[in-house]
Amino acid sequence: MDIPIYTVDAFTKVPFEGNPAAICLVDPEHDLSEAQMQKVAAEMNLSETVFLRNKEKNGSFSKGNSFHIRWFTPTNEVNLCGHATLATAAVLYNELRNPSSSVKFDSLSGELVVSKDGNGFVMNFPLNETIVQDKAEYHKLLELIVSVDCVETVEYSPPTKKLLVRLTDKMTRKQLESLTPDISSMMAAEVTGKVKGVIVTLKGSTENGAVSSDGETYDFISRYFAPWNGIPEDPVTGSAHTVLAYYWGKVLSKKTLFARQCSRRGGDVRMRVLEGDRVDLIGQAVTSTVLKGSFIL
């Protein structure tokens, strides 16, 4: 069977930045096993590969508005992936010219709705709460990322298994970008399965260099490390921002937020915190450099 596949750079308006994802369009009559999907994701070797199916037996990717979505890293399936969902919407709208006002994705995290907004996309996701933690519990893990003296607070998001590490305000964007965590030792330091990813974040200011290329000050900046999911560092992470939006929205008393994930590729994310524990993640995706092809299985 031939399976159409695309790669798209998400959370960026500049080619070769943001976070690349692979999107496989699977016809209902093609019954891919979980093992086959995992092998395809490992072959692509991107942080996430999407497998998209129509909910309707005779549905069309170019006309339908309701789909099943699954996300795989090179090593395992995950419950939620923002950048790959954004990339999927970009394929449906920009490549296949789907006319739907919004598209719905059934996922392991429930129903996700994405709509087109000018040159970007709005993704309605769950807002994931954080709970304050004792820094001492994570001392060994933290020391592999940054000096504990530079850590303001540590919080944990149970729904996502993400640890949020806020740096002190004396830190700068340059220092955040210069961090070189010991990835293999991080995995050895956390073997309980409680933590699947670590967000390192810093409050934005003009003084610490957290300013966009357009001169707008970021509310916060971050990096994200998830070696437990086969991703040493993720370039731009939508699911991490469902956690960051909860934390920084509370700390800054803001409903609208603007942030940058400061990986080597990097990308910008806008957020709207909504009622009912939901958040809109807003971003762009580059489809002018999209790669197209087929997997033959």
From TrEMBL:
It comes from the Eukaryota. Keywords: Isomerase. This is Phenazine biosynthesis-like domain-containing protein. Gene3D superfamilies: Diaminopimelate Epimerase, Chain A, domain 1. Belongs to the PhzF family. The keyword S-adenosyl-L-methionine does not apply. GO terms for molecular function: isomerase activity. The keyword Isomerase applies. GO terms for cellular component: cytoplasm. It comes from Magallana gigas (Pacific oyster). The active site is at 48. It holds the Pfam family PhzC-PhzF.
